[in-house]
Design goal:
It contains one helix and nine strands; from the N terminus they run E-H-E-E-E-E-E-E-E-E. With about 150 residues, the chain is mainly β. It has one domain: Hypothetical protein, similar to alpha- acetolactate decarboxylase, domain 2 (60s Ribosomal Protein L30, Chain: A). A hairpin with an 8-residue loop joins strand 2 and strand 3. The radius of gyration is 16 Å and the shape is globular. Bound molecules: zinc ion (ZN). The site of zinc ion has 3 residues, from strand 5.
Length: about 150
């Protein structure tokens, strides 16, 4: 059941921001630069399409109270199938699905992920939202009103 104390509302949508990356660009770092430069606090990631030459991600390995994460780096030609997420208080949190010719990879996008040919990124600002991520005793993130 949803906890009403864990529900937060924005007042509407703001600017739509489109970012085009080229070969060798760092995906997450480029988004972070954009958010800082444009002063974006909160946003919905509408889409990322493109290809990667290097993917760095993590994923959980157990049911332990605190996440036991495995960090993985893949250096193969990959197509991005999906990347979803949000920006809260200026911090992006994106999850990615990308496939190399043999395997599909799914996880939490990390820095170091590098574009192969191109990436097209679209974000939409959320206005009137004032929350931040905090960590609980198990180091699991949760939202709190600012
Ligand atoms: Zn994550």
């Amino acid at each position: 059941m949803s906890n009403p104390q864990r529900v937060f509302h924005g007042t509407g949508l703001g600017r739509v921001i489109v970012l085009n990356l080229k070969r060798g660009d760092l995906l997450l770092e480029s988004v972070r630069d954009l958010l800082a430069r444009e002063g974006v606090k909160n946003a919905a990631l509408l889409s990322i399409v493109g290809s990667l030459q290097k993917l760095v991600y993590h994923r959980p390995l157990s049911f332990a109270p605190s996440a036991e994460d495995e960090f993985i780096t893949v250096e193969k030609p990959m197509e991005i199938g999906m990347c979803s997420g949000m920006v809260i208080n200026g911090q992006p949190h994106f999850h990615i699905v990308a496939a190399d010719p043999q395997e599909t990879h799914v996880g939490h996008l990390e820095e170091g992920t590098t574009v192969l040919y191109l990436a097209e990124i679209m974000l939409c600002e959320i206005e009137g939202l004032s929350i931040q991520r905090k960590l609980d005793a198990n180091k699991t993130a949760y939202f709190e009103q600012m």
